[in-house]
Write a structure and sequence with these properties.
Strand order of the largest sheet of chain A: 6-7-8-3-9-10
Strand content of chain B: under 5%
Number of domains of chain B: 1
Shape of chain B: globular
Number of strands of chain A: 10
Distance between the termini of chain B: 25 Å
Structural class of chain B: mainly alpha
CATH topology of chain A: Rossmann fold
Radius of gyration of chain A: 22 Å
CATH architecture of chain A: 3-Layer(aba) Sandwich
Largest sheet of chain B: none
Oligomer: heterotrimer
CATH superfamily of chain A: P-loop containing nucleotide triphosphate hydrolases
Largest interface: B-C, 57 and 49 residues
Chains: A alpha/beta (283), B mainly alpha (277), C mainly alpha (256)
Largest sheet of chain A: 6 strands, mixed
Structural class of chain A: alpha/beta
Order of helices and strands of chain B: HHHHHHHHHH
Radius of gyration of chain B: 21 Å
Chain lengths: 283, 277, 256
């Protein structure tokens, strides 16, 4: 059993209104999420990805289908003990400090009393929240909220971490910081499921992706496989003159190849932003 | 079992902290305390009830009324703040069962109401004691029998009121588990409290013989579904000794209260298990 | 079946709770006399409901009583009676409400009715007398009801005696109330005298003397002053009844 999450023929209908009209949020979805990878679940708003995650976590019941987490039937306490979850736009009790929240979540997740202090400090360290851990959550910025949310999700050292829109509303520095945390988790051999519609970020951190639309799975595979175009190539050339370009075109044409476009390479705005505000902390 | 208790305790602890930090709690506590204290100066409006009775009624009235408001509104608010702010998503994604979550909410809210009742009753006790001393001195001078109050009765009443509020919390949580909105819960919860306070009408009618089987069935169902909250209002009898309370009656009242509490918490847990968050 | 088991458990728990509540209610019901009274129905307004629901009964009773004054000033009998009833019902232990309700009905309301019908000059004397008796009777009934609930009955007995004598002109009944009042631990000094005089006026002269004499010997003589006025009245009775010297109350050392 290599799958971290196995979803078979999942269907979820919601009843809406007094007349109980049926709204199908997820339609016969089957997925196998392998262990030890960062898996991106993509799709536009309302495509059913958050509902899928909620069904996986037992927060919503499935209309049909079978789901297992790490070999255990989903929605069982045993399955959730090995799972960490960061919901979309997390909101925590404002009066608790960051450390109190992480401790509270560790207690609820069954961390032994003897391991509690170390687990809390490790999670805070991983989320780079040690400095602000003594402050009430009500004083946190959006990025800090996401990071403390990440800490509470991993405090019990889960094998599977599910992150729902972890960078929504977070600036690029914070977003990169969350990306680093995800990589750190993968390096530890954890499985991370990332649900997002920020494609650039998913592309950077995910090993595999699945794309959903209107409740159905439309594409699934390794990022490298689904994004590469094997019939196209990109070369980056320095100090190219018009004469050099004509010569290159002629040489390529002689071999039956053809240059279809020539552009200047661009940095992404995100790269530029991160470069300009390097070292700034999201505090 | 031990883990389950620990998780329930943690939820109730945070619920308690959240509740006592709310302005609503502080506001009602201050208002009720002011009512207890003002009873001494407002006793000029008393028409010969006996001053202690007036003071006691004023204070216990505040405890009853504001306690009920607190039990309905605060419980609904504590539940829906978790649902609406999606903190429930974070918590229920952990190895925390829904009955544990609901029980945690219950014990947290009940503890807050315990503090509320205890603070007010202590204040009420001090006010009654101070006035009692003055009345005893005056009665001794006039050669009359002084009116007194019972500390033991006051303690018994505190327990009864706390239990009554516990039943209200359990009902409101069962309604919250089913309801979609805070407002609906508060309205239906308040109606449930009123129904509980007036349940004795059905209870009295049920104890009388009737020819109509349908009416008898209606009374039978309503007297079982709705708890009789009136039976906890024994302030006069317990604290001022206005009438005798049968031996063992208080234990019977407590047992029925605890049974309703267990029934409504179980019902709430069952409904909450079906709820999609 | 397993699916329905938890719901079944809830049903069983509610049944148990209901049965326990039924039993406990039977036992505590007599300790809460304020609730479940028919008299509340005409004024089941918001404030009263609030009072019935829990504490605050005394406070609401007080406000109901204050409100009754508004109707009393307007000489509005139904309004005044309704609010007085509410006050008595919400706080049946309070002697004050019963006593004043009984006296207001017994003393004032017949006059209001006479005024309503055109005044003393217009209403025939017989009708006036009938109205005084009618309202006096109702006042006594209210006082009787109060005696069943209020903790201090003596004042209610005295008020009932006052109405029985003044409005009903029933001296035997008045004597009966004053006798009960005189027997109470907190009896005022005049209750026994009134009792004896009304019995005397009702024609039960010998019975009046015997009772008054016993009362004086057992309860008045031991007092510090020996109640000389009462003894003087007893001497008058002995004289009028021609009681033999041997049967009379022995002469007291302090007697003039």
């Amino acid at each position: 059993m290599n799958s971290a999450i196995s979803v078979r023929h999942l269907t979820k209908d919601f009843r809406i209104g007094i007349r109980g009209l049926k709204l199908r949020a997820v339609d016969d979805l089957s997925l196998e999420i392998p262990r030890g990878q960062v898996y991106g679940l993509l799709g536009p708003n309302g495509c059913g990805k958050s509902t899928t995650l909620k069904v996986v976590l037992g927060l919503v019941s499935a209309t049909a289908g079978e789901i297992s987490i790490l070999g255990e039937p989903s929605a069982t306490s045993a399955a959730r003990r090995r799972t960490g979850f960061l919901p979309e736009a997390p909101y925590f009790h404002k009066f608790l400090t960051g450390r109190e929240l992480v401790r509270y979540c560790a207690q609820l997740s069954g961390v032994a009393a003897s391991d509690l202090d170390a687990a809390v400090e490790d999670a805070l360290g991983l989320a780079a929240m040690k400095e602000a851990a003594g402050r009430p959550i009500g004083t946190y910025s959006k990025g800090m909220l996401q990071r403390i949310g990440f800490a509470q999700a991993v405090v019990h050292d889960p094998e599977l971490i599910i992150l729902d829109e972890p960078t929504a509303g977070v600036d690029p520095v914070g977003s990169a910081s969350i990306g680093r945390m995800i990589h750190a988790m993968r390096d530890k051999g954890k499985t991370v499921v990332l649900c997002s519609h920020l494609l650039g970020q998913v592309e950077q951190v995910c090993d595999r992706v699945a794309i959903m639309d209107r409740g159905k799975l439309v594409l699934e595979g390794a990022v490298e496989d689904v994004l590469s175009r094997r019939d196209r190539h990109v070369m980056t050339i320095e100090a190219m003159t018009p004469a050099a370009r004509s010569a290159a075109e002629a040489a390529l044409e002689a071999h039956g190849a053809k240059i279809t476009s020539v552009t200047h390479p661009r940095r992404s705005l995100e790269d530029l932003f991160r470069e300009l505000v390097t070292g700034s902390r999201d505090a | 079992m031990k883990d389950s208790l620990r998780r329930t305790l943690w939820i109730s602890r945070v619920t308690f902290l959240e509740a006592v930090r709310q302005r609503f709690f502080a506001f009602l506590l201050v208002l009720s305390a002011a009512m207890v204290l003002s009873s001494v100066s407002l006793r000029v409006f008393d028409f010969g009830h006996g001053e202690l009775k007036f003071i006691a009624d004023f204070g216990f009235g505040g405890m009853f009324f504001f306690g009920s408001v607190l039990a309905v509104v605060m419980t609904a608010q504590l539940f829906f703040s978790e649902i609406d702010n999606k903190t429930a998503l974070t918590l229920l994604a952990k190895p925390l069962s829904r009955p544990e979550f609901l029980l945690g909410k219950f014990f947290g809210a009940w503890a807050v109401l315990g503090v509320f009742v205890l603070v007010l009753a202590s204040l009420q006790g001090v006010v009654l004691w101070a006035r009692e001393q003055e009345l005893i001195a005056a009665a001794e001078q006039a050669g009359r029998i002084p009116t007194t109050f019972s500390i033991v009765g006051l303690c018994q009443l505190v327990l009864l009121q706390w239990l009554r509020l516990g039943v209200v919390i359990a009902i409101v949580l069962a309604i919250s588990a089913l309801a979609r909105t805070f407002l609906f819960t508060v309205v239906v919860g308040s109606l449930a409290v009123v129904a509980g306070q007036l349940q004795w009408i059905a209870q009295d009618a049920f104890l009388r013989p009737t020819d109509s089987p349908a009416y008898a069935a209606f009374l039978w169902i309503s007297t079982r579904l709705i708890p009789n909250l009136q039976q906890f209002n024994l302030a006069d009898a317990l604290v001022l000794g206005s009438s005798a309370v049968e031996e063992g009656a208080l234990i019977a009242v407590c047992l029925s209260g605890l049974a309703y509490l267990a029934a409504y918490l179980t019902l709430g847990s069952l409904i909450f298990r079906q709820r999609e968050i | 079946m397993r699916r329905f088991a938890p719901w079944l458990l809830v049903g069983v728990l509610i049944l148990i709770a209901g049965a326990l509540a039924e039993s406990s209610w039977r036992r505590v019901r007599p300790s809460i006399p304020e609730i479940g009274r028919k008299e509340l129905e005409p004024t089941l307004g918001q404030g009263v409901l609030l009072g019935v629901l829990g504490g605050l009964r005394t406070v609401v009773a007080d406000f109901a009583w204050i409100r009754s004054y508004v109707f009393w000033e307007r000489r509005d009998r139904p309004g005044c009676e309704a609010f007085m009833r509410t006050a008595c019902t919400l706080d049946p232990h309070a002697r004050y409400f019963w006593e004043n309700a009984g006296l207001r009905i017994g003393l004032d309301m017949a006059h209001w009715e006479i005024r309503r019908r055109g005044g003393y000059a217009k209403v025939p004397t017989e009708t006036q007398e009938r109205l005084f008796r009618q309202y006096g009777r109702r006042g006594v009934d209210v006082l009787e009801e109060g005696m069943a609930h209020a903790r201090h009955r003596t004042a209610l007995l005295l008020a009932a005696g006052f109405l029985a004598e003044g409005k009903l002109k029933d001296f035997t009944l008045a004597a009966n109330y004053y006798r009960q009042a005189a027997d109470a631990a907190d009896a005022p000094w005049y209750a026994a005298r009134f009792c004896a005089d009304f019995d005397w006026n009702a024609g039960r002269k010998l019975e009046a003397y015997r009772w008054y004499r016993d009362y004086w010997l057992t309860r008045m003589r031991p007092r510090m002053d020996g109640s000389p006025d009462d003894l003087a009245r007893l001497r008058e009775m002995e004289k009028e009844l021609k009681i033999s010297l041997l049967e009379r109350i022995p002469r007291q050392s302090w007697e003039r």
